[in-house]
């Protein structure tokens, strides 16, 4: 008897997106969508974008494992997480403009709740490094108010929850080499080469 | 705790089948949305060892009871009478007939069949959701399946 139930068609198989969109729209309306996310393609691979109601809270590269990142967001912020592209339309559009060379700065609300203390001071300084420019870890340490904290600047950049949008890729070694990057050294090279063009 | 998106992906189809079976085509999608919206609201407080499947069916059952009560208060529009003939001639039209057969079962049998065969819940858990005993749930499901089998003998049903 059970096998005939298995073949009963329902709308979910025919069109899962429409139902899912209804759910995310209702969740947004009722203030239950704590974290919305989507992915976008980019020259540095697929990017996961996640936003709270306050703003963009996380950008993650493919090599960071998007499922693992979502699980971390569930722990750190809230498990009320849904794939809901609408909240990320603006940043997705701006990223596309950035990667086609039409945009040099990002203008979307940012939620820095995943960074605190000195790491936050570093992140707040990074947007002051202009498009196409770089600073050394030592320069950033000085600008963030702790000239000796060069290593901590490296950590702050490596753990930047909002790479690309908050430009930690513009922080390089004093000898001019790229240094480490959450998206991998190749991604850092792509971004800096693009910005230098 | 898993991101809620994963709960929707894993259990969405099952919940829709249950809603479709218990409420019929017209109300199934509303019930599905309301079930997951209510689940999303309560999700952060769900105990780590909870049976997510049973939890979702419990919420869906409450939504179904709400809808059934609301329906009882408003006159049934003539246009919603199920049209058993053909359903636009799709090759899967017989499956529409099976949904209709489910719809004609008494409420208790329909719920027991849906929660056991579509949601995969044991009778003990079904009894907690619908009230009554596990044995009563088992009997209701057996009676329901017997009625369905009488209406739609399996031989040739898939051809």
Structure description:
- The complex is a heterodimer of chains A (197) and B (159).
- Chain A is of the alpha/beta class and 197 residues long.
- In chain A, strand 1 and strand 2 form a beta hairpin.
- The longest helix of chain A has 14 residues, at 16-29.
- Chain A has helices spanning 2-6, 11-14, 16-29, 66-76, 89-99, 117-125, 137-143, 150-158, 185-196; strands at 35-40, 47-51, 56-61, 81-83, 135-136, 171-172.
- Chain A is globular and about 65 Å long.
- In chain A, helix 6 packs across helix 8 (150-158) and helix 7 packs across helix 8 (150-158).
- Chain B has 159 residues and is mainly alpha-helical.
- Chain B has helices at 4-23, 25-42, 52-73, 93-104, 107-118, 123-130, 134-151.
- Chain B starts with a helix and ends in an 8-residue tail after the last helix.
- The relative contact order of chain B is 0.12.
- The model of chain B is unreliable at 78-94 and 155-159 (pLDDT under 50).
- The A-B interface holds A 1-2, 4-5, 7-13, 16, 19-20, 22-23, 26-27, 30, 32, 35, 37, 70-71, 73-75, 78-83 and B 1-5, 8, 12-13, 16-17, 20-21, 28-29, 32-33, 36-37, 40-41, 43-44, 92, 95, 98-99, 117-118, 145, 148-149, 152, 154, 157-158.
Q: How would you summarize this macromolecular structure in one to three sentences?
A:
The complex is a heterodimer of chains A (197) and B (159). Chain A is of the alpha/beta class and 197 residues long.
Question: Which tags fit this structure?
Answer:
heterodimer, A: 197 residues, alpha/beta, two-stranded parallel ribbon, 12% strand, B: mainly alpha, 69% helix, globular, disordered C terminus
* Quantity of strands of chain A, as a count: 6
Structural class, judged by helices and strands of chain A?
alpha/beta
**Content-based structural category of chain B:** mainly alpha
The chain-level mean pLDDT of chain B equals 83
Helix content of chain B: 55-70%
- Tell me the distance between the termini of chain B: 44 Å
Based on CA atoms alone, the radius of gyration of chain A comes out at: 20 Å
How large is the share of residues in beta strands of chain A?
5-15%
Strand proportion of chain B: under 5%
Q: What's the β-strand tally of chain B?
A: 0
Q: Which regions of chain A are unreliable across 5 or more consecutive residues at pLDDT < 50?
A: none
**Which consecutive residue ranges of chain B, at least 5 long each, have pLDDT under 50?**
78-94, 155-159
Instruction: Based on Cα principal axes, name the global outline of chain B.
Output: globular
- Overall mean confidence score, pLDDT of chain A: 92
Largest sheet: number of strands, sense, barrel closure of chain B: none
Helix count from the secondary structure assignment of chain B: 7
Shape of chain A: globular
Which chains make the largest contact?
A-B, 33 and 35 residues
